[in-house]
Amino acid sequence: AEMIGTYRETVTKILNEFRAQELIALKRGCVVLTDETTLRALSEQGDAETRV
């Protein structure tokens, strides 16, 4: 969170939302992209809350 200038709570919230949507999986301290296409589309939408 500090590396991107936000709060840990914000990162945790977004990661949990992405996990619930099956866009990512969290395994042993790693983030595994399970739906790269949708994640890329979200990053290109420009919604500040989803651009982590």
Comma- or semicolon-separated keywords:
about 50 residues, about 45% helix, two-stranded antiparallel sheet, globular, alpha+beta, 2 strands, 2 helices
Explain this structure.
This protein has 52 residues and is α+β, with helices and mostly antiparallel strands. Strand 1 and strand 2 form a beta hairpin. The protein has one domain (2-45). The chain is globular and about 25 Å long. It contains two helices and two strands, in the order αββα. It has helices spanning 8-20, 36-45, and strands at 24-27, 30-33.
Indicate the radius of gyration in whole angstroms.
Answer: 11 Å
The run of helices and strands is HEEH
Largest sheet: 2 strands, antiparallel
β content, as a range?
A: 15-25%
Unreliable spans are: none
| Structural class by helix and strand composition | alpha+beta
Number of helices: 2
So what's the overall shape? globular
**Physical arrangement of strands within the biggest beta sheet:** 1-2
Query: Total strand count, please?
Result: 2
Mean pLDDT value? 87
Domain unit count: 1
Helix content: 40-55%
Give the N-to-C terminal Cα separation.
Answer: 9 Å
Concise structural overview:
The protein is an alpha+beta fold and about 50 residues long.
